[in-house]
Amino acid sequence: MAKGKGQLTARGLAALTPGEWATDAATHGAGVLQARKLSSGAIGFYYRYTGPQRQQTRLSLGSTLSLSEARAAAAALARRYQTDARDLRAVLAAEEAEAANCRAAAEAAARAASASTLSALLDAYVESLELAGKVSAKGVGNAVLLHIKKPFPALCARPASEIELDDLIPILARLIRSKKLREAGKIRSYLRAAYAAAIKAKQDAAAPDMLRALNLSRNPAQNLATIDSGTPRERTLSVAELRAYWRRIQRMTTVRGAMLRFHLLTGAQRITQLARLTASDLDLDHRSVRLLDIKGRRKLGRAHIVPLVQQAEIDLACMREDKRGDFLFTISGGTTGVTYDEFRGALDRVVAEMSLAKELGGPPFTPGDLRRSVETRLAALGYSEEVRGHLQSHGLSGVQKRHYNRYEYDLEKREAISALYVMLTGIGPKWSTCVDVHRPSEIAAAIEMS
Q1: Which CATH fold would you assign to the domain 239-449?
Q2: Same fold, 2-105 and 239-449
C-alpha cells in the first residue's frame, strides 16, 4: 500500500505500517524521495526517477539516514538526473566500478610498496642465504632483527629504492656509540650485500625471484665507510698454557669434556663445521671424519678430511653414547650438533678455572684463540703453511688449489695431528695399526726446545 504525495514528516514515517510506502512532494521531472517501513521497523529511503525507456526506477539510499539526510541525498541525485544523467543507475554503477578500480590500484600499489621495503629486502637476502645452504643465514637474520628492524621500524617500512646513504648512517652510529664495533662492521656488510644481491638478481636468471621482484638498481650502502673494529686478536697460547688446558679437559668425565677434547685433537676446527658432522661423515677404516667447508661464497661445500687419533675416536664415542641421533659433535646424544654458545659456555668455565689457578700467561682465550694457537705451534715445529692450511681448511681458495692441486695431504695432516698430540700429552699418539706414527720422539724433542 502506498500513500499519496505529500510532505514527509517524522511523525508520518513513524505511523507507517511494515511494507507501506510514502512519497515526498517533488518538482515535476526531478524524481522523488520515497520512504518504506521495513519489516525490522526501520525506514528505508529511495530516490525514484523515470529512466530512458520511461520505466520507473528506484535507487536505495539506505535505512540509516534521518529524514533531512535522505532529502539531501535525493536532492543531489535529482540535480544529476536533471543535468546529464538520465540513466542514473548506469552512471552510478560506472562511477562505482571506476572507484573500485582506483581502490584496487591503490591497494596493489600499497602491497607493492610493502613488498619492496628495506625490511622486505633484508628478509629476501636472509632467505636467499638459507636457499643457498649458508649456515650464516640464521645469524644474519638475528642480527638484522636486533640491530635494524627493532630499533628502526620506520626506516624499515620505507621503500628500499628510496633509502639514501644518510638514512643508513644512524644504524651503524648506534652500534659504534655502544662500542659494538665488530657488530657494526657485520651490519655494514649485510646492508651492502643485500642491496648488491638484489641488483645482481635483475640480470641473473638463477637468482631468487624474491630478490628480483624488488627491482633495485642502486646500492646506497655501497659507500658506507669501513669500520675499524680495533686491533685484531693476537692471543696465542704458549705450550705451557695449551698443556694446562689439556690437563683440565682430560680430567673432565662429562660429555662436555669429550667435546672440548675432540675439538682440540682435530686441530681446533671451526665449531660450525664440526657441528654439521653426522654418522655418514665418519670413516672408521680410514680413521677420519669428513667436514664440509661451505664458508665464503662457495655454492658447493668442499670436503675437508680430518684424521682422528685414538683419543679423538674415544671422545667421539662418548659424545654419541646414547645414540639418539646422527650428529657426531654433540652433547645431546646426537639429536643436534653443538652450538657455538654451548661450546663457548663449556670453554669459558675451564678458562675461568685456569685463571683462578694462575695457569694463564695472558688474558682469557676464545675458540678462535685456540685455533690460532694450534696453527702457531705447528708453524714453530716447522710445518708449512700448506700443511697447516689443509689441516685447518683455510687459505685454499686460489685457482691452483681449487682446480689443479687435488692432493689431500693425508700423511702430512696425520703427522701434524701427531705433533699436536705429543705437544699436549708428552707421549706419542695411537693410530690404527695400518697407519704409520711419524717420528714422535723427534717431535717431542722439538717441542722441548721451542
Answers
A1: hpI Integrase; Chain A (1.10.443)
A2: no
- The HSE-up count of residue 194 (CA atoms within 13 Å, CB side) is 28
262 CB-near residues (< 8 Å, 6+ apart): 274, 312, 315, 316, 319, 329
Q: How far apart are CA 252 and CA 293, in angstroms?
A: 30
Q: Give the three cell numbers for residue 295.
A: 664458508
Query: Domain residues of the chain, as ranges?
Result: 2-105, 116-212, 239-449
| CA distance to 125, 171, 338, 366, per residue, from 153 (Å) | 18, 11, 34, 35
> For residue 60, what are the β-bridge partners?
46
User: What is the per-residue burial (b if ≥16 Cβ within 10 Å, else e) of 331-342?
Assistant: bbebeebbeeeb
CATH class, domain 2-105, is alpha beta
* Cα–Cα distances in angstroms (integers) from residue 56 to residues 41, 48, 81, 87, 299, in the given order: 25, 7, 13, 11, 73
226-282 pLDDT per residue, tens: 887 555 568 899 999 999 999 999 999 999 999 999 999 999 999 989 999 999 999
Closest by Cα among 441, 402, 431, 395 to 307: 431
User: Is the pTM higher than 0.85?
Assistant: no
First to last CA, the chain: 115
For residue range 54-70, what is the model confidence (pLDDT) as tens digits?
888 899 999 999 999 99
Nearest Cα to 47, choosing from 17, 85, 102, 16? 85
Q: Is 365 helix (H, G, I), strand (E, B) or coil?
A: coil
